[in-house]
Amino acid sequence: MGKNKSLGIFDSGVGGLTVLDRVLDRNYYDRIIYFGDTARVPYGSKSKETIVRYGKQDVRFLLTEKVDEIIVACGTVSANALEELQTSFSVPIRGVIDAAADAAAKATRNGKIGILGTEATIRSGIYARKLNAIAEKLDVQSVACPLFVPLVENGFCTFENPIVRETCRYYLQPLKEAGVDTVVLGCTHYPLLRDMIAEFFGDSVTLIDQGEALADTIPLGKVSPSELSLSFCVSDDVQLFQKNLKVLLRHSVHPAVTQIDIGAF
Amino acid sequence: MGKNKSLGIFDSGVGGLTVLDRVLDRNYYDRIIYFGDTARVPYGSKSKETIVRYGKQDVRFLLTEKVDEIIVACGTVSANALEELQTSFSVPIRGVIDAAADAAAKATRNGKIGILGTEATIRSGIYARKLNAIAEKLDVQSVACPLFVPLVENGFCTFENPIVRETCRYYLQPLKEAGVDTVVLGCTHYPLLRDMIAEFFGDSVTLIDQGEALADTIPLGKVSPSELSLSFCVSDDVQLFQKNLKVLLRHSVHPAVTQIDIGAF
């Protein structure tokens, strides 16, 4: 068995923690550095040009930590900047779109797939392109959900909350009416609303989680939790992030969180 | 009559346009530069330290435009960073809190005042401090409304929209129950939700608009619209901002918008 590998993983904020959770399930990497760009969150409402610029800074920072691989745990950067990142850096960089598109194409029975994502992800049209490259006949319906990230970032994640209920209805009703049987949670924040989205659609619809789909492509390793070195960096306040970490990450960790100035990279 | 003056005015995004509108009513400045930090919006969910850092960069940029005065057209920066800005720079810098607190103290009849603001503004406690310095007996109730800025930034501004209705009810109901007769719109985005907030409270509650209160302290001048040089700079995409400008600014302008790299200041 070869040497274990180290991973750099980043997101605009806390959404990427849903990907990290799934990656940790694989016990594959022995060193992981997570970066959350909390001083500039959200990315999903910004322009492609700005998203590319921020993504390059995020990668440049992670490279100073000498990681072997990078995972873009952000749907918006994966949709708008992955190619630019892959051609600008020699380290292997993977996004969350390919595996999710494959999983959605496999899951659908009636060929009707719904995509939920940020403004920038839906504007990129990437899911429709990927899915139609897999099978031309797939009917892809996309909905930009710009209010989902603010809901999650502000802790509004229960269906009892009338704002959450109304926002789900507003964004999801068109997909229900279109008769989709598979829905891609195309932003890494959305798994934190998964229970509400699942309740709205009912059992007949399969939800695709980008982090879960990506993690399925990572080999199962043998690194025990005690052998793993896991650290977190953020661009805004450390304590705000630590609080989120405890609530949002399923895996229990003793988080060492450091603040960095991402603008300098 | 002396030489006319030039003004630099900034906000995290489009909210400051509600202040600019009121400033334009005064015909006082003959050159105005507006900066919107659209690549890093919102500020209201970020830490004090990050807000101070961003505010200093915003001022530094405006100073390269050789302005005589600066208005902080952002409730969050005014609440969290005004003193730091005033001691760091020699140019006169004004925020939007003082005039609004004065106006609220004048308007209330029953002494019960509600404050709506971002997380960071409410956390700062500045309105309660200012109001209790004016009159100790004032009863100040503060509510952080983190979802209002995302609503406005995404164009959700009508009461027919059920998300807007539920969000208003969620944040405003406690103030209604507390019997406030005056409510400060403590974020420059909130005047764009004014009609909805007014409808919720009804005629018995006076709403205080920070931009309106600040503009009342600016002398009435004689600069005609044709004599005014007005320009806009943003840190994200120019076209996104131009679209907002046409919808959100009451004054009709021919917007020259330039993109700048605020991280470099």
Percentage of residues assigned to helices of chain A: 40-55%
The strand line-up of the biggest sheet of chain A is: 4-3-1-2-9-10
Instruction: Name the structural class of chain A.
Output: alpha/beta
The number of distinct structural domains of chain A comes to 2
Order of helices and strands of chain A: EHEHEHEHEHHEHHEHEHEHE
Envelope shape of chain A: globular
The name of the CATH architecture of the largest domain in chain A is 3-Layer(aba) Sandwich
Number of strands of chain A: 10
Structural overview:
- The structure is a homodimer of 265-residue chains.
- Chain A has 265 residues and is α/β, with parallel strands linked by helices.
- Chain A is 42% helix and 19% strand.
- Chain A has two domains: 5-96 and 214-264, Rossmann fold; 97-210, 3-Layer(aba) Sandwich (Rossmann fold).
- Chain A has a six-stranded parallel sheet, with helices on both faces. A four-stranded parallel sheet of chain A has the order 6-5-7-8, sandwiched between helices.
- In chain A, strand 7 (182-185), helix 9 (194-201) and strand 8 (206-209) form a beta-alpha-beta unit.
- The longest helix of chain A has 17 residues, at 162-178.
- Chain A is globular, with a radius of gyration of 18 Å.
- The model of chain A has no long low-confidence stretch (mean pLDDT 95).
- Chain A binds chain B through residues 38-41, 45-47, 49-50, 146-147, 150-151, 153-154, 156, 161-163, 165-167, 169-170, 235-237, 240, 263, and chain B through 38-41, 45-47, 49-50, 146-147, 150-151, 153-154, 156, 161-163, 165-167, 169-170, 235-237, 240, 263.
